[in-house]
Design goal:
The complex is a heterodimer of chains A (209) and B (250). Helices cover 21% and strands 33% of the residues of chain A. Chain A has 209 residues and is α/β, with parallel strands linked by helices. Chain A has one domain: Rossmann fold (3-Layer(aba) Sandwich). By secondary structure, chain B is α/β, with parallel strands linked by helices. In chain B, a hairpin with a 2-residue loop joins strand 1 and strand 2.
């Protein structure tokens, strides 16, 4: 059994993501303080809510430096939804907020031209670069995923974008990845079997030395 | 976006039930088992509706939601008897992704705004129950079509969106359980014209009925009888819709 640590920083409901991970064979531990990350292998940063509340929750519970150190050491880390956005340098949601800075880039509102914001519903993932060796390696091109968001990630390095979705006339960021760090804007725990397959691929990711 | 196929499970604890015009309830079976089967068949989302909750003043579905969210990995919408932000919080914690509100929002419309501010409008769904009147208008009802509000259903739906609703479920009470097709005329007036997703409910009797309402530009279709009575499976419905040119999630 792979042990996976899910971060609880007071935002959103952990139930579904914990059950999704358990369903694909992980043993899940909940980390409530940054110190709980010492020695952890696979870490999941979930979250639903506003960016400013999220980064405050991480700071108040002492997660910021341990998360940076965890990623810098090449350990697997995945951020989901708000958890993905927190991996970047900054966000413009309700004012300017600094993020974890683990993946260079910023978070910006979905351009609203001719589309409903938030994007709520199913959309098809298109590769921005080959998925070999990533958490999407087992997913067919055009796989469906479930989204609920008003903001999306804009990594500085184009190579850090793993997948996009077409929304109205534009492409918006759906997944990012750099080394052992991954971010999904969609909810794999709400994306049916395709999403469970991605969680299974994540727990199979090795540490990158 | 693809048309969402949303099995709707009406629950009178502990049973899954089905009525006609939301009355004359028949026991169908165990709700968790049916929910699991629809998930495995490829449903895009599920609605759990506690259809006696408004009478008793409370939603009794938290345990069912918690159990379902452990095994069912698609969005779950839960409705019935939701009167406060505390009620919403409890259901979201149990694993619901959205809540569906009718009676309480009608009684106190500012509740929609409070709920949207607290949880985000994407998780606040307003159920608009309608019955077509002899004068050709549509009136809004509450308590599963039992209570007449006197409000024009069209006006109320638009007002709910202005107040912060993130999605509308339009239930045609006079079509519900009848399996004779949707109230296309009413739904056509709201689909594509409100700035939030619209889910059609009430009257699905065949794949052709669902294709007809999809053509109006609705975002989702809630279906019950044709699934509960095993007339079709979710997969058959999607295959038929795809053949009719409707985009669905494979």
């Amino acid at each position: 059994m792979i042990k996976v640590t899910v971060i609880d920083y007071g935002l959103g409901n952990l139930h579904s993501v914990v059950k999704g991970l358990t369903h694909v064979g992980a043993t899940v531990a909940i980390a409530e303080r940054g110190d709980d990350l010492a020695g952890c292998g696979h870490v999941v940063l979930p979250g639903v809510g506003a960016f400013g509340d999220g980064i405050r929750g991480l700071r108040d519970r002492g997660f910021i430096e341990p998360l940076r150190a965890h990623a810098a050491a090449g350990n697997p880390l995945i951020g989901i939804c708000l958890g993905m956005q927190l991996l970047l340098d900054s966000s413009e949601e309700f004012g300017e907020h600094a993020g974890l800075g683990i993946i260079p880039g910023r978070v910006a509102r979905i351009p609203g031209a001719g589309v409903k914001v938030p994007q709520v519903g199913w959309n098809r993932l298109q590769p921005a670069r080959p998925w070999v060796g990533t958490c999407l390696s087992g997913s067919p091109l055009g796989t469906w995923a479930y989204f609920v968001h008003s903001y999306h990630a804009l990594p500085t390095r184009a190579g850090d974008v793993l997948a996009t979705v077409r929304y109205g006339a534009q492409q918006i960021t759906a997944a990012i990845g750099s080394g052992s760090v991954t971010g999904f804007q969609f909810h794999p725990e709400k994306s049916g079997q395709a999403g469970l397959d991605m969680l299974a691929a994540y727990i199979a990711v090795e540490r990158i030395p | 976006m693809p048309l969402r196929i949303i099995p709707r499970l009406d629950i009178k604890a502990p049973n899954l039930v089905k009525g006609i015009r939301l009355e004359g309830l028949r026991v169908i079976g165990n709700p968790a088992d049916h929910a699991q089967r629809y998930f495995e068949q490829g449903a895009d989302e599920l609605i759990f509706q506690d259809i006696v909750a408004s009478l008793y003043g409370r939603n009794s579905l938290a345990d069912l939601v918690r159990e379902s969210a452990s095994r069912i990995f698609i969005p779950l919408t839960v409705g019935g008897g939701i009167r406060s932000c505390a009620d919403i919080h409890a259901l979201l914690r149990a694993g619901a992704d959205k809540v569906c509100i009718n009676t309480a929002a009608m009684g106190r419309p500012e509740f929609i705004t409070e709920a949207a501010r607290s949880f985000g409008s994407q998780c606040i769904v307003i159920a608009v129950e309608t019955i077509r009147q002899v004068d050709g208008s549509w009136k809004a009802f509450t308590d599963n079509g039992r209570e007449h509000t006197g409000l024009d259903a069209y006006d109320w739906a638009r007002r709910a969106v202005d107040l912060g609703a993130g999605e509308l479920i339009l239930t045609s009470v006079d079509r519900e359980g009848g399996r004779k097709g949707f109230d296309l005329e009413f739904i056509a007036r709201l689909a594509r014209t409100v700035g939030v997703p619209v889910v059609a409910h009430g009257g699905a009797g065949s794949i052709a009925d669902v294709a007809a309402v999809a053509a109006l530009g609705v975002d989702g279709v809630a279906v019950a009888s044709i699934l509960h009575y095993k007339q079709v499976a979710v997969g058959d419905l999607k295959t038929g819709l795809a053949a009719a040119g409707v985009e669905v999630r494979a």
